[in-house]
From TrEMBL:
Signal sequence, renumbered to the chain: none
Family: Belongs to the glycosyl hydrolase 51 family.
TM spans (from-to): 12-32
Keyword Cytoplasm: no
EC number(s) given by UniProt: 3.2.1.55
Subcellular localization, as worded in the UniProt entry: Secreted, Extracellular space, Extracellular matrix
GO biological process, one term: L-arabinose metabolic process
Protein name: non-reducing end alpha-L-arabinofuranosidase
Amino acid sequence: MSWQGIMDFNRRAQFVLIYALFVVCITANYGVCELKANKSATLSVDASSQSGRKIPDTLFGIFFEEINHAGAGGIWAELVSNRGFEAGGQNTPSDFSPWTIIGDETTISVGTDRSSPFKRNPVALRVQSNCDADACPSTGVGVYNPGYWGMNLENGKGYKLILHVKSLDSVNISVSLTNSDGSQTLATTNIVASASDVSDWTKVQFELFPTGSATGGRLQLTTRKKGVFWLDQVSLVPMDTYMGHGFRKDLLSMVADLKPRFLRFPGGCYVEGERLWNAFRWTASVGPWEERPGHFGDVWNYWSDDGLGYFEFLQLAEDLGAAPVWVINNGVSHQDSVNTANIASWVKDALDSIEFARGSADSTWGSVRASMGHPEPFTLKYMAIGNEDCGKNYYTGNYLKFYSAIKNAYPDMNIITNCNALGTTLDHPADYYDFHTYTTASSMFSQKNVFNSAKRSGPKAFVSEYAVWQSDAGKGSLLASLAEAAFLIGLENNSDIVEMASYAPLFVNDNDRRWNPDAIVFNSSHVYGTPSYWMQHYFRESGGAILNPATIQSNSSSLAASAITWKNSDNSEFLKIKIVNFGNDTVNLKISVSGLSNSINEVDSFTTVLTSSNVMDENSFSNPTKVVPVQTPLTNANSQMDAVIQPHSITSFDLALAQTSYAADM
Ligand code: AHR
């Protein structure tokens, strides 16, 4: 080949290579195309004190719904499922599962009857052993409870067992914690009592300390003595719970790490019910746990013993330092609506619920709260009237009755309507309007601007449910979290009108996925956060911080940015600049901060990046930290900085400020 020929060949080869790379770049779906020209951007932040605006303290919180076994079999640490034998309904005989018989038809008969000592939950379990001593299998006969897809029993930890027993004869019942098939006993004790001791219902309590561990463990009650005994309200709870208030510690520490400013509870659709008779009722969820009837939540289709009731939610909010947001049923379910003419007793029920939370310890309902161990009132200042009920029969009429009665008795209560006031004027008074959005990633990214044009007067917005869902989200993708982060940046920038926001749903027990995706995934023993959970960590400091104007100029339309000045618990101050890169280009970013009244301390400054090699990456039990924020020191921290922003990433720059630049309260 001639020299010219070699040159032509090289040029052709170069052309083919460049063309091939171009094709690779434009066909790559979500992969990163390294050889594409980078985008560039300039981010100007005005950090002067006169241009800052305080973000509402309440801006980012959490929404807890009893969905996906988030509460029963979730954050509520009770290990026994169907502890009162009520889940099969109050007509007997009934299904008492997941309780399971140990023994066969010749040795044991088990069924439910209505002999319980508890008026509101009359069903109890009748256990008849037909064998004696050597005629019984060596392991005995009886029943076991597998909990919610297996109990997590840990070596050396303490478990408190309470049960109610009755028999007309003497009893000898073994109570054991075992592994999943009962072949290994981890802890055991015996209830030995004469007939006179147990001829009436008797409450028995033990502490059990397993000498081994099992993640799929069970509680067994067995006997080798012929006779009949009854059981009711059988409870097994780890002795070590979050703040000693009955919540699973590992799950609650994930929530506490988000530093939520409010807790909206207990739903969602769960509040409404498919039918009204199956909706959550707060009065049935308070008082001694043994006396709560429990109920079947017919939207998410499972039974709840209601150990996690209205009181426990208020307690949880207090323990998290979060303002409780109580969503109450206004006589409207998915399928029925109470006529406004008949709504008075529902309104009274709402007023009673406020008295329960706020009334003095000698008031009718305040005294029930006090008897549960909280004589001091709870701080309840937010109530939502219904969930997603706007437009349903009687909603507005019912709402107005609730609104005027509550405001009349409690003028400081903030009332949240289900009717969206974005772009329209409400025909009824409200302090907040509820805004829910579940959408695709690109639509969520665009919605970062949705409140830009909102009216600046009238009720404030409460974005109480937001998430990217369906194919863009899978079971919790990086892609979803990027779009959500951009949306939250939009909320920060509009926080003069948007005062509260929460992701939904918060939790899923992996054994009962009713809704995808969710922020926190768990089973009986393990837990991990989805990228949407970790994304929320970028917004933990926003409530109560100062929003500094931030402007992006770029040839990329896939960026969103904001800047805040926030203070650590030790009073050290940071300028936090957040930038979301929703696109698949690397971005060369110039950051320019003006108006700082104090110098930047590079030693304490840091940057945090959330990204992954594939934008559809998810975390899982086998790889729980595949997509998590990575924090590194920011050695070039300065008011003028160059940074490379990775494709598909959320990046924050926390510039440590040498001294306080804002007055304590603005
Ligand atoms: O978050 C899941 C459900 O979505 C909520 O129960 C409901 O409010 C919404 O439709």
